[in-house]
Amino acid sequence: MKNQEAIDDPQKGLKFSNEAIPVDDGSFSPSTKPPNPGGGIEFINVGHIYGNHKRGSTNTEAVAEFSVSIKPGSLVCLLGPSGCGKSTLLNILAGFEKPSLGQVLVGGKKVSGPGPDRGVVFQEPNLLPWRKVIANITLGPDLAGRPKKETLAKARRFIELTGLSGFETYAPYELSGGMKQRVALARAWISEPPIMVMDEPFGALDAQTRISMQELLVDVWEKTGSTIVFVTHDVDEALFLADRILVMTPRPGRLSKDIISPLARPRIYESLVVNSDYAMMKREILLAMRKPEYYI
């Protein structure tokens, strides 16, 4: 039977069956957590310039004078047109790049590189094809040498939260695009980082799957207390997800508009589209994106 299939990682020699996964005894039941105090973020006058230093080349200023403070437990969307520096800011926050100017603080400490306090979800799920679903989810703790029993218990919790129950022993090629992103979310969240950094993770999904994944993301966020910084160029996605929307200008990316959402939770798409606040915010954001000179 598929659900009894052993999970085998040829690189690490890991073998365990679905039967070895601890059953939820109630200690992993979903519950809303308070914000993690380590999830505070500060961008302080951040600027970034790209250049290849070849003869005749010109430098590209991607981000300029970007300053924002984000409270722990927030769900914030960085919204703007393609090429406005959204992903650059995310890479700086994740520690993959160092800013040309300014600095980023996480939990009051300067970001100098990647760290376990920041989980990252990319546009592509990037699952390891030789590891089954649960082995992909436990990749980080396995590499860190965490106790197997503890790791599997946490994996079970996030399998349930992300709707992957019954798919623990499936291979990545057997999953749809939406299911693969569920695995990527569970993999990033299993270490329970104070901050989740997300770079358009649902951009490649069809409309219906995308809505389902957005609803899933909000549900898991409410139960973990993480801070989420989510990059998107989709206005409707930002309005559905965010407590706060940071609208950026075209390159070089500057903060054009800082909007605190008045939309109550839980949010339902069918109700939001006829909500007057939703319509007014969408108009304001579109104007800020298309005519940034009105807002700078």
Explain what the structure shows.
- This protein is of the alpha/beta class and 296 residues long.
- The chain contains 9 helices and 12 strands.
- It has a domain at 36-112 and 233-296: Rossmann fold.
- The chain has a 6-stranded mixed beta sheet, with helices on both faces. The protein has a 4-stranded antiparallel beta sheet with strand order 4-3-6-7, covered by helices on one side. A two-stranded antiparallel sheet has the order 1-2.
- α4 (148-161) crosses α5 (177-189) and α5 runs parallel beside α6 (207-224).
- It is globular, with a radius of gyration of 20 Å.
- The model is unreliable at 1-31 (pLDDT under 50).
Layout of helices and strands:
Elements: E1 7-9, E2 14-16, E3 41-50, E4 60-70, E5 75-79, H1 86-94, E6 101-106, E7 109-110, E8 118-121, H2 133-137, H3 139-143, H4 148-161, H5 177-189, E9 195-199, H6 207-224, E10 227-232, H7 235-241, E11 244-248, E12 255-260, H8 269-272, H9 276-290
Parallel strand pairs: 5-10, 5-11, 8-9, 9-10
Antiparallel strand pairs: 1-2, 3-4, 3-6, 6-7, 11-12
Helix pairs in contact: 4-5, 5-6
